[in-house]
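Example 3.
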Amino acid sequence: MASTTAAVTEPRTYLEYKRFSAFHRWMHFLVFVSFTVLVFTGMPLKYKETHWAKWVMDAVGGVTAAGVYHRIAALVTVFYWTCEVLLMVYVVFRNRGRGVFAPGSIMPNKKDWADIKGMFRWFFGRGPKPQFDRFTYWEKFDFMSLVGGTVIIGLTGFIMWFPMTFTKVLPGVFINVALVIHSNEALLAAGVIFIFVHLFSAHLRPESWPIDKVIFTGSLPLEHYKEERPLEYARRVQEGTLGEVLVVRRITWRTRLTDVIWYGITAVAGLAAVLMTVFIVWSIFS
Amino acid sequence: MIRAARRTAAIAALAALAAFGLLALSGPAAAQTLGPNAEAEKCLSCHGDQSLGTIDVGGAQKTLFVEATVYGTSLHGLLDCTSCHLGFKPRRHVAAESANWLETAKLTACGNCHADQFAMYSGSFHGHLALGQAGSNAPLCADCHVAHNVVDVRSTAFRRSILDLCGHCHGGRSNTYLDSYHGKAALLGDNATAVCTDCHGAHRILPASDPASTISKQNIVQTCSKCHPGANRNFAGFLVHVDPRSPHSNFWVWLFYAFYITLIVCIFTFGGVHTALYIYRGFKDGLYNRRGH
């Protein structure tokens, strides 16, 4: 009885820390959907001799259909990449080139190198856990490898999509090289996202376990953020810009419903990622 | 009511019997149009025995069994056995009959009906080897068009079998083909994608050095254009048979392959170690027990 009363009187309005804008959340959604489609329609070609490759290809409607979905997802990729890069260019211009490598930036700086060393010291119990600003080095790597990798995988993909156009200028061996790069860059990207960086960053590490939903909700409890990114908090207090990132989050039936939808999508994509990871690992070691 | 039901059941049973009888009567006739003909039946009285075999000239065991249903339903199912096995008599064959057939008729019998194809084959690389050199292993007609099971070459089943047929002798080439997009798509069920014979031709396969070859410098662009309209010389310079794992196959392809494998191993190793240590520290410090977001 007491617990019911507690649940009813629990406050439904929170002061939260806004980490991602609606723009970033939509971009992430596009990456999330297109990346999954690209991996599922492309990886079977890399592991064409396996049973799962045949199974996945048949499940998505055959090689020709997979090719169509792969190209649609590629266009979505071009779209989100262009949006992100335009935003970055805009921000650099707006700040007149200042602060590109400043503490709150996504660009790598000297502190990241110190943080890597500091984290390894912490892993072995030989020092405190380093304090982070807005982005950690693994988040920077995650983002920059996607933005950079998209250029490589996109260019090689377009060479194979329009071989006739490209070979008006380039020798035919570029198509061979494009396939090797595209295929291995894809394995690298899938590994980074599905296992080694993004899965770790968003799900496995203690601060995120079992799921860090901030990319879907946009904000997280102030206390929690203060603890995770103390340097950004301190910096904003000092600069007097804390007010810019504070939002009032009201929990209503609508926010609950969107949470359920996001969790559903995440669960489906997560399971798909785990399945594909198992397939790839199995193929490499068999 | 019960009586009516019984009568209906009896009529139904009679009708079923009648239908069965008709089927039984028509059965042998239907079998005859599909199965081996009367002459073939004679041959099959011995060759229909699964255990029938002989010792080949080379000393290897060789089966002489012909499966009647497979032959009967093949494109040649209506032909007499002696249409191809020229000179054989329906009896225990004497050595001369077999020797004569193996040395001459086996090589040329197909040409009696398929003169055009045989002329192309005779002028091909395979034909030169098979017809010009005694004891050559080069394929004869029946090695690709399975002797007692000739199927339509336009069928999906035959197209899919081409990879294995060519790969039987050209294993390395067929592996590099499978690494190309054509090969990947073919393995995963795309029946429209190019297989060996679409580029190399079927009956008149010639080495690339021969100007008349479909893959010679003079003809390769036209060969690619069959599926890729507008193909140009650079496009035709795409290497179908390249092994990324060997620097001797194509240096640039190998270089990028080697670079990526190294990069993947380094990044995955670092990522794996970093994740494992983070999780280890997380457990050790009890960080997983705290309430998350």
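Chain B is about 55% helix and 0% strand. Chain B has a mean pLDDT of 84.
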